Every structure is written in C-alpha cells, then in structure tokens.
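Morning. Coffee machine broken again, so started the prediction first thing and wrote up yesterday's gels while waiting. Chain of 208 residues, entered below exactly as on the submission form.
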Amino acid sequence: MPIRAVIFDLGGVVLGSPLHAIAAYEKELGLPAGVVNRVVVDTGEEGAWGRLERGKFALEEFVPAFEADCAAAGFAIDARVMMERMAQESKPRPQMISAIGVIRDSGLRAAALTNNWASDERDDGTRALRDHFDAFFESSVLGLQKPDPRIYQHACGELGIAPPDTVFLDDIGRNLKTARQLGMTTIKVEAADQALAELEGVLGFALR
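Came back before lunch.
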C-alpha cells in the first residue's frame, strides 16, 4: 500500500533534541547518564512528567513534583533549569523543515505528533512550526501521550488514513515500537541527514 502521510515527532526530529540537553545537564551535575529518563519511564503516566505531557500539570506544579520524583530515585536536580536547557536546544532544523515542504508539495500529507506541555508555558520552537504541517497533534491537548496507541490512532483517524499508510519518525525507541505494532513504517532519528536518507528510501523521491 502506498504511503499517504508522514508523521513527525518534534523534539529530536524537527527540532533540536531535548534528550541532548538533558544528557548535558546530567553530565554537568555529575549524574549517571540516563537517570532522568529512567525516572520518566519508571513513574509513567501518573508521574510528574506524564502529568505534564498529558496536560494534567501546569509547569509550576511540575517543577517541585518532578524534583520529588528524582529525589525518590536518589538524586537531585533543578527541574526549572533543566526545562530551560531543553527549550534552548529546541531550535528548528532547516533541512527537516525543507523536507516537510517537499513532502507536502508531492501530494502527501505531513503531520506533527508530539509529547509536550501547554503551549503558553513553553519557550521553544514549537509554535513557529504549525504552518508547516497539515495537522498538529499534541499530548497536552489530547490528554494522551506516546507510546499510548490511542494517540497514534487518533492522528491517523483525523488524517483519514490507516496506520500502514504512514511513515512515523521519532527519536525514542519505545514510541516507535507502538507505531510499528500498529502497522506504521518507522524511522528512528539519530541525525537529520540519516533520517532523511531513510525517508527518501521509503518514499522513493529526494527530500534534500
């Protein structure tokens, strides 16, 4: 079945990677690599991070709650500083923006599917991206977050396509796993050029 749409994660795909900012902050504090992400995964939907991304927490509520989650895991961070570092890293990647334009010009649809928090509490590159996409799906608006299969199904439903008709790009493996299970073609983004080369192979036309 031919591909009819490409769905992009934002942070680490279309924008600079928040994971890189978190890793740098961990290193600065002398923490083991990956401890922050481990807290995010271990606390799940009901942890501070999960509540923030599903629109259940404002940023002011998130900061002390996430610091408490980290303290329970045995280390201390300044969550507000970490979020500021993430925002600083989240700048649009020009080659991805250009490729999205090529995709739309080719007659395919392009959508964003992102785990985020309330837009009026963010100072990153997300707001400027909306006009580049045919559809924009945000966890904080929908009350669902990747890798919950319902958020992928919602996106496909709104686009009027089936999961096997789509390519999904993300930088986090567990988000890609759910997409694959639903029948989507997936690309793990390590770098923009690598991801675009793989996407060109799937779509059969140049994006750069």
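The chain has a mean pLDDT of 94. Going to sketch it on the whiteboard this afternoon.
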